[in-house]
Amino acid sequence: MELCSKKKLHALSLAEKIQVLELLDESKMSQSEVARRFQVSQPQISRICKNKEKLLADWCSGTANRERKRKRESKYSGIDEALLCWYHIAQAKAWDVTGPMLLHKAKELADIMGQDFVPSIGWLVRWKRRNNVGFGARHVVAPPFTPELPPPAPTPQAQLPLSLKDFSPEDIFGCAEVPLLYRAVPGRVGVCDRVQVLLCANSRGTEKRRVLVSGLQAAPRCFFGVSSEALPASYHPDLAIPWSEWLAQFDRDMGRQGRQVALLLAARVVEELAGLPGLGHVKLLPLSAASTTPSLPSSVVQAFKAHYRRRLLGKLAAVQSERAGTSLAEAGAGITVLDALHMAAAAWAKVPLQLIVSSFVQEGLAPGKTALAPHKASEMPPVPGGLSLEEFSRFVDLEGEEPVSGVCKEEVGTEDQVGGREDGLEPLPTKADALRALGTLRRWIECKGTGPELFANFYACEEEVERLCCL
């Protein structure tokens, strides 16, 4: 008796999958008929239709290997994307990029992200295959203008006859650098407390880009054991905002969505980006250097800072209630960069949509016949107890105070004074620690006699933690 041979799996390449989608869209063929034409099963065609948006995004990105049949995601996706961003920048500058150079850069990025990762030759080969990267002769970038033409403007985007009316309100984005003293309190403003925060949102408030925080510390201890994917905001180990990398990522994100958007930027920033390769989906609209109009409405920035300061005060008050005799300055010294990332992400999420809409219209940064009158209560969060409105307003604008010089606490490791291991790094929590913490938290809430709303939030958190413990 002849045994039945196992049916051989026929996988389609990305290019073939796009052909499948085009055939289904442009003809009246059924999925079964298309499956027979490509000699695959009908469920495989169904999966292609289900992943239509992702496949089209990969196809439009220009970086995907269109002949590759299967795409296996990297375990270290954050390093993968960061290295690809760096590679595109190096390619635009006509650098000679070699394999050893990429391996060294990947290790450097892993260290910055706090990940225990050692790139190998095999990993590099797979990375190149995933991202359709190939070496070869270096291509010199041709000059964008012929010698007969007049000298070009500072940036390609500045030459285009663009205006706000060329874009829908949903596709007009504003962004701003916000200096922030992340743990400073009145009377204690240290030079090491300063970080730069990059905020970006569209004029309808429906899209807020992920917060980016740039700080002095290359690898804060508080990041030990924390997955870069779990960080609530992006962190860059330098006070200068990494505009090239940030814009490249923004451009890729818009490309995946098939959108053309405008980004309002200060003229100074646009001048610094003169060497930036052309962006395919983001058009820069520089504001005049003489203009007083901000690239992100000042009321939006002020609301973000107010929510951040209120959250900081709440955290400091909790520390003081736990440790009797602790001053506000001492409590503030215990705030870490990781705490700041969480508070910045929470503060940005709390800036109301209505405020963003009305602020863009009032500043003339978005089309609108009349500005919507924002409620003053929505611009600023409730004033914390024990402070007057004037005192809280001064606290919100604490960046205006003169900082004092000193050594950063996290850099010298004064955390060792509060106990823990000799290297100042606390051991990572176990599953048992997490479950015990849930029990302690629930018991504490029960003893406080709070309402059902808090328990509803706790149940959601408890369920998610228990799910993670089972992985």
Automatic annotation (TrEMBL):
It comes from the Eukaryota. PROSITE patterns: HTH_CENPB, HTH_PSQ. One of its GO terms (cellular component) is nucleus. Residues 31-51 bind DNA. GO terms for molecular function: DNA binding. Signal peptide: none annotated. The keyword Nucleus applies. Keywords: DNA-binding, Nucleus. Residues 1-55 form the HTH psq-type domain. SUPFAM superfamilies: Homeodomain-like (SSF46689). Residues 67-137 form the HTH CENPB-type domain. It is found in: Nucleus. This is Tigger transposable element-derived protein 3. It comes from Lipotes vexillifer. The lineage of its organism: Eukaryota, Metazoa, Chordata, Craniata, Vertebrata. The gene is TIGD3.
